[in-house]
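Render this sequence as a predicted structure.
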Amino acid sequence: MIILFALASILAPLSLGNVFEEGATVAVELPTSSAPWTLTDYDSRVLRTVPAGTRRIELGTLGVGFYRLRQSPSQWVSLAVVAKRRGPVSKTSPIGIDIATTWFYTPEEMPTAMHLCQLARVSQVRDRMRWDQLETSRGTFAPPMSTRNDVAAKLQSAAGFGVLQVNHSTPAWAQAETNRFPIDLRDAYRFYQTVAKRWKGQVTAFEPWNEADIGGFGGHTGAEVAAMQKASFLGLKSGNPHVTVCENVFAYHNIPHLQDLDANEAWPYFDTYNLHHYEPIENYPKLYADHRAVSAGRPMWVSEFAKSVLWSGDSNLKELDDATMDEQSERIAKVHATALNEGPRALFYFILPHYSEGQIQFGLVRLDMTPRASYVAFAAVGRFLADARAVGRVTTDTSIQAYAFRSKPDGESRTVVVAWREGGPGELPAVQDALAVFDHLGRPLARTTRIDKAPRYFVLPARARPAVTAAPPTPKWRPGKASPIVLQAVLPASDVALPLSAYSIAPIGTTAVPVSVYNFGPTARRVRLTVKAPKGWRVSIDSAVEVAPMGRRNLTLNVDPLGNLTGASVETVSVRGDDGSVVSLRFAPTR
């Protein structure tokens, strides 16, 4: 019954979350109050006074924008109007969002979250599944449609979104340190095989783990990430050959981790290369270039990104003051335009729900699911950068940020330029032929070439060709074939030197490194192994091993640097199978 109710609610009146499409009658429920309310717009202009005691107010039709019914600086009800949708959202539009319904919302609340994403013209949503809720003990899965994960997947698919699922933890029955990968990768294989089958036709993509490179989610090395990636990929493709398998997403722009992943030749085991970033905009070119270098030419997806702001005042509300709310809304177009210029095929803004970490407030909506001004700005991104493909940065004064895209606002092929100037007003002659101009909230403006610190959208004819510095090219596709044999080193987390994506070992003396050889194929395999090490090091491992289907053989890699150190912070030892499997390990000899 919950499912039927929720699916029907997607088509309910356009008042869910106090967000309305342009042209609809705006009606808002108000809390009981002995004081009058004042209706103001984004620019704090007073539009109307509402008498005290009013419980429901009809405001007629309002233009696109963000509005508040306010009693005091901290007591207000928000509402928004977004442009009316014209036609379906393209499945290839890059605009997505982290919706996190299973984190934040009950099944009864989920339809409002779906509705808000639909109004913002989102093509894909990212959600958070719980492995331990789905597989309660090894091989025992919760019945279909019995968990919030199942409800959310069905609702999101029914609402028309591509759905990206990510996992954060391992059940205690598979790993005592639940923020780390399972010890036995067969548990990961079987879990992902099962959920890929369970949600076939609903969940379109999976990230096997979230931010494995940071301590909160296990603090894994690139070698560990690669082994988990390989097993998960093989399981997911076994369960649903058509599902998109994303790379275990990185949180940090840490070169050693990227190099470690690359050395472990993980690229045949991911369909998209995924990353997160919260860095300043000026860092984007370097950040993306470093990630592109190890993407192997796979499409890049950014499954979390934002430029954060701080809440103030009441710690129960964790709300933004007026100036900070304006700043958050202005940043939405900036981070999207600057990121899209670097070539990712999907961007999932972090985050729709009211969510804070310490003093940072990330959410586009408030605790009661009503909008902040940033939600309206996000809906403008969904409209004007629909199906956007980067052309490049517009050639102009270096103080101006202006990016051109081939896009389809309101379903029409256009060239769209997003532009702003942090230092104050300026002029952008390249947009003088604009058909229409809009502010960062999507409100129409008079045709102009003037820009300021708040971004503007300039909609030009599709044939327009402003002079640009071309967007970075897609890196060359690196071929590779996924092997059913997976090699995994299993060292204690206490041995991990995380910034180096390496393991600490003694400079003299043998370190016994457990290495597991898995066979995820249907027949027994005999694998011949060779090892490569720095000059002067003594290393050994069994030269061949027979592994049964879905079998695991445990070997020992003995490593002794013999004091032969080059002075480098890390040294690499690799084990390679004759089938193409490899595990490459970075060691940091302690001195």
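Summary. Residues 89 and 170 are 35 Å apart (CA to CA). The first strand starts at residue 19 and ends at 21.
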